[in-house]
Amino acid sequence: MATFKDFRNKVKPNWCPGCGDFSVLAAMQRAFANVGLEPEEVAIVSGIGCSGRISGYVNAYGLHGVHGRALPIAQGLKLANRDLTVVASGGDGDGFAIGMGHTVHAIRRNVDVTYIVMDNQIYGLTKGQTSPRSAQGFQTKSTPQGSIEQAISPLELALSLNAGFVAQSFSSDLKQLTHVIEEGLKHKGFSLINVYSPCVTYNKINTYEWFKQNIVNLDTLEGYDNANRGQAMQTLMEHDGLVTGILYQNKERLPYEAMIKGFKEEGLAKQDLNISEEQFDRLMAEFA
User: Which residues does the UniProt record annotate as the domain Thiamine pyrophosphate enzyme TPP-binding (predicted)?
Assistant: First the structure.
């Protein structure tokens, strides 16, 4: 049985010292091992940005995709080989700006993929510009007088789309983060996990200390029921989205691949796709 060390490779991350993404990497490696996976059973597809490099830092199948397009690649990969545990990853700019259209439809579609977003509320790789998750008034090189736009609320959006699994964690809480990723991996259907992952170089507002003072752990809320979507939405709004833990899970919703009529149990990668000339001609005639 694999341990978290088996999911390490010899590539040294080149993130800034103190970057929250180091903890996300460690939590992913621990979660893979804790749910009984082997390296050859995992595929990680990442987008562009500092966090996009994570697919190259895990001893598993990895693909560093194009900006905002991790999710369509990950969904295609899962449908082609259902035996793989597929994880998509990226930053808030990657997933909630150029990739937002894919994020919305991936949630709606509900393919069995776990999407881990490293949310640092800034564009870090391009040296510190305002992102879709930056708060109103946030000052950067691109908004020197403060952003006049409201920040996107990804968890509220996910709940409005009836997502099957919605969670949020903080990179400083490795134990909770590992647990949340484990549960997301085990969930059948699309799982959205937003992780507050501070950028120590360019975001001097949303720091580790700021999050520690402002976030609320859902486990401390008496009577909280993560099977209640209405309560989840209300709790998010009451705390301005600053909650951590499993916000909502619907175990009854079937994943996309389980609802396709005639969809075979084995993925395309495992199917015998050899067809006779007669079968091919008949297939072509249908589209003539």
Answer: 48-195
Tokens of 86: 């597929």
Cα gap 163→157, rounded to integer Å: 9
**Cα dihedral value 86, 90, 96, 102, nearest 10:** -30
Q: Counting Cβ atoms within 10 Å, is residue 100 exposed (0-12), middle (13-18) or buried (19+)?
A: middle
Q: How far is CA 279 from CA 107, 269, 276, in A?
A: 36, 20, 5
pLDDT digits (tens, 9 = 90+) for 203-232: 999 999 999 999 999 999 999 999 999 999
Torsion (CA) 195, 196, 197, 200 in degrees, nearest 10: 170
- How far CA 164 is from CA of 20, 58, 73, 75, in Å, comes to 26, 26, 20, 16
Token pair of 245 as six digits: 């833990």
Q: What is the mean pLDDT of residues 177-196?
A: 98
- Mean pLDDT over the full length of the chain: 94
Q: Cβ distance 154 to 196 under 8 Å?
A: no
233-284 confidence digits (pLDDT tens): 999 999 999 999 999 999 999 999 988 877 767 777 777 777 888 988 898 9
Measured between alpha carbons, how far is residue 108 from residues 111, 220, 252, 254 in Å? Answer: 9, 30, 15, 12
Are the C-beta atoms of 109 and 65 separated by less than 8 Å? no
Domain 4-263, architecture per CATH: 3-Layer(aba) Sandwich (3.40)
Give residue limits of the domains in the chain.
4-263
Q: What is the DSSP string of 104-129?
A: HHHHHHT-S-EEEEEE-SSBTTTTSB
pLDDT bucket at 98, cuts 50 / 70 / 90: very high
